[in-house]
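User: Need the bound-state model for S-adenosyl-L-homocysteine:
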Amino acid sequence: MATEIKKVLHMNEGSDETSYAKSSYIQKHVLSLTKAIKENAIREIYCKELPTTLCMADLGCSSAVHNTLNVMIDLINTVEKAARLAGKRGQEYQVYLNDLPGNDFNLIFRSLACFEDDLKKKVGVNYGHCFVHGVPGCFYGRLFPSNHLHFVHSSYGLHWLSQIPEGIEDNENNIYIARTSPPHVLKAYSDQFMKDFTSFLRCRSQEVVNGGMMIITVLGRKSLKLYSKQACYMWDLLAMALNDMLLQGLIEEEKLHTFNVPQYPPSETELRLLVEKEGSFTFNQAQVSYVNWEPMQNYNNSNKVSGHYDFFKCMRSVVEPLIKSHFGEFILEELFLRYWKKIQVSMENEKNVFINVTLSLTRKV
Ligand code: SAH
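Assistant: Bound-state model below.
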């Protein structure tokens, strides 16, 4: 099962209307909310180490060029300011962009010419050298040599599990952790997350230098209870659309029963306990933030808005490859039309938010 997820999980490629690159406004907004915590961390590690070559990685970078590359530009800009204060010139950077092999790396590579221009515009022409590398591979295994990275960033990647939890066949018409899921299904999801997150920490503990830092943001939950409507509702609506199609004989029951979304929304407390138990990193702080499904409300714009199509497109760009590989291409248009309608009704009647948990961790010396 694990290899299957690695093979099929990727966001919608390319740069057309249905692509992740064009639709991921939620993830982009999350990155803006975590700008300060990332910049403080990279400044801290840079000033402590003053490395000749600063090595940093974005894990689960996806193909939304502006999301991942703008993070890197902001981080380099922060270091350049600190370098100037320290009287250093010609700082070198190794930037690693990681995702699963199915990710649209070509789109990122094609944007690198503009990246250099954007970097010069922001930082000035005298910034030394920046070497960018693509790293296709699963972040639950080793990706880098030992003692190599000074700074690791990952946003909205680590709530994705390495596999569908085992023993959840009786989750039946649910496709995720749902209000009606049996307790052992919730536990199987949480156990799989514990296993994956611990592997992630263990691998990074080998790769991050002593004193190196990681800033990790996941889609999470606030409550200690394993079921939280805020964290699950977007998948409840997709399950409703699939169940409607089942009732009309448009998909097979067996197909629906075997489809589960490989995601888990951890709470801050769970993350802290896992970091402490694994033991290689100091837990500096956690920050909880919120993103509204409604795009304009994230910018305090109180105009009457109708962002349901934007939210729908964002969700579709994330889940379409999984749906396609499990159910086949033929259900896509019908299913997504139904999903969009469910999203529309929900957003007209209630305010929905995603909860993000951001962690700041330091590799113990
Ligand atoms: N960080 C980007 C993308 C978030 S989408 C942004 O903020 O816009 C999550 C990304 O994590 C996807 O591209 C997905 O392929 C990647 N991902 C999920 N599991 C992964 C794994 N085990 N190893 C590497 N990348 C993974």
